[in-house]
Design brief:
Blueprint lengths: L1 E7 L3 E7 L3 H13 L3 E12 L5 H9 L7 H4 L17 E8 L2 E4 L4 E2 L12 E5 L4 E11 L10 E14 L18 E4 L4 E6 L2 E2 L6 E3 L8 H12 L8 E16 L5 H26 L1
Antiparallel strand pairs: 1-2, 2-14, 3-8, 4-6, 4-8, 5-7, 9-13, 9-14, 10-11, 11-12
Helix pairs in contact: 1-5
The structure holds iron/sulfur cluster.
The site of iron/sulfur cluster has 13 residues, from helix 4.
Length: about 290
């Protein structure tokens, strides 16, 4: 198996996995979504809420506000499986005390721990009219996405098999199929008598006649255009271009809500999978 990072930013990583099986790649996807610990507001004590928003909705909004949850922030905090996790006092305390008229934003949540605070300052929470008061205590705890979506660090965690483009040399070259591509993957070149394939703006070369481009969404607009053109010209309904995929090569994308770097999500997910595999190994060794 080979892994190659294609692109990486503060909240998104795209990488290629070659020579892997679907169950393995899917196990990483699931672990990244539901087994990576993250901090979110769990308990909310509403002392006063004069706003038009119901207490339940307000608490839900606070729970879904992303908080900084990198390894440094989480270190030393109780996990759901630890004794005492349910106690208020073992959470990170936040306070929210505002008087209208104003829009209350995530930056108004005051944390008792300087490391753990809202990732973004400008998430609107509630609008207060003249003299309306909001007074809230909240407690954030570490949890897992399998228990509630607020503890899921990923907003996108998905893979697709690597799109593979081939051309049918048995039919006439259909230069115009390239015009049907909405993603700029195909460009016709009448001088070299080819329809060329591009990935990230770079020409894709091939030794075996199959071209790989992660930019292809596999929408098959090019195939339909080619078949329709052939049929309109009285030719058999045969497409010049074919779209398929490589069974064991994957493009994997993880995007986070900003609470932790995507690479950290991936590494923790792999650790969690490794822990589960170790449990199986020690169990099977005991049974022998
Ligand atoms: S399948 Fe869609 S995105 Fe891919 S090459 Fe054809 S038209 Fe372009």
């Amino acid at each position: 198996m080979e892994i190659e990072v294609k692109s990486q930013t503060d909240d998104e990583i795209v990488f290629i996995i070659r020579d892997a099986e679907v169950p393995f790649v899917n196990a990483i996807r699931r672990a990244a979504m539901v087994n990576v610990p993250k901090i979110a507001i769990e308990d909310v004590n509403i002392i006063r809420n004069d706003s038009a928003m119901f207490n339940e909705v307000l608490a839900h909004r606070l729970g879904l506000t992303p908080l900084v949850s990198d390894l440094d922030a989480i270190e030393g905090l109780l996990l759901p499986e630890d004794d005492g996790w349910f106690e208020h006092d073992n959470g990170i305390a936040f306070s929210l005390n505002e008087i209208g008229p104003k829009v209350v934003y995530s930056k108004d949540l005051i944390s008792s721990d300087s490391k753990i605070k809202p990732v973004y300052d400008t998430i609107p929470i509630v609008k207060l009219k003249e003299d309306e008061e909001l007074n809230v205590e909240a407690y954030a705890k570490v949890g897992y996405g399998k228990n509630h979506v607020k503890w899921m660090p990923t907003t996108v965690c998905a893979y697709k098999q690597y799109p593979e483009i081939t051309f049918n040399d048995a039919v006439d070259i259909d230069y115009e199929c390239a015009d049907a591509c909405p993603r700029g993957v195909l460009k016709s070149d009448k001088r070299s008598k080819k329809v060329k394939v591009f990935e990230d703006g770079e020409l894709v070369e091939s030794d075996d006649g199959s071209f790989l481009s992660s930019d292809c969404s596999m929408c098959k607009s090019c195939v339909r255009a080619s078949i329709n053109r052939a049929a309109a010209n009285g030719a058999p309904e045969n497409s010049y271009i074919n779209i398929g995929y490589r069974e064991n090569d994957f493009i994997f994308r993880i995007e986070t809500d900003g609470s932790m770097p995507p690479k950290e999500v991936l590494l923790t997910a792999c650790d969690k999978l490794g822990e589960k595999a170790d449990k199986f190994i020690s169990f099977s060794e005991k049974e022998e």
